[in-house]
Amino acid sequence: RKEVEQDPGPFNVPEGATVAFNCTYSNSASQSFFWYRQDCRKEPKLLMSVYSSGNEDGRFTAQLNRASQYISLLIRDSKLSDSATYLCVVNMIGSQGNLIFGKGTKLSVKP
Amino acid sequence: ETGVTQSPTHLIKTRGQQVTLRCSSQSGHNTVSWYQQALGQGPQFIFQYYREEENGRGNFPPRFSGLQFPNYSSELNVNALELDDSALYLCASSLESVDPYEQYFGPGTRLTVT
Question: Per the CB < 8 Å rule, is A97 touching B58?
Fold first, then answer.
């Protein structure tokens, strides 16, 4: 089983749609969770951290379920500018500060 | 912009050659991590440098090596290049004492091995 697995995608949605990305992680000892966004041929950028209580940043909501080892990202009212690859990321156990990335899920928002 | 810079932007090398990639961390950040991102994959951790010493390593062979300098900038060296080394190489800086997981990525160096 891969350490971080994501929906394969791609997701093609119209503007204004709500879209949800799912991610599972294999190591129950993981403590830190993130969603990164990566535009085509650019570097990954931190979108948001994911906390046990869930957290929201504008149109973006992240949820963590430790029991199921599951992380989600919900984007409401999709914009054209949301088109990117979304990477689910967890911390690497035994190596402080280092991250394990999923393969990413590509989102295309169409007019 | 994160303030993390990398050079060169693009590089083409031949199998068997050696390459050095460079990274300048964001001002004040004392930790640099290197990642390899193959096409269609997420970044994979190569190693991290903190206080000029290797502070963790991923599943990469010894021909991948690095350095960190007193000004916290860093180099990634790859010897005996293989075709599968073709990838985007990303460095990320962080401040270990604040939040080691809050990493800021540079734009990457795209390496092509022919």
Answer: no
pLDDT tens across B35-84, in order? 999 999 999 999 999 889 998 899 999 999 999 999 999 999 999 999 99
Closest CA to B66 of B103, B25, B14: B25
What does the DSSP 8-state code read for residue A77? S
Residue of B21, B26, B45, B101 to mutate, interface with A, max A Cβ within 10 Å: B101
Shortest Cα–Cα distance, A101 to chain B (Å)? 5
Inter-chain CB proximity A43 and B100 less than 8 Å: no
Residue A93 CB-density burial (10 A; 0-12 exposed, 13-18 middle, 19+ buried): middle
- From B31, B94, B106, residue closest to A43, measured CB to CB: B106
Judged by DSSP in three states, A50 sits in strand
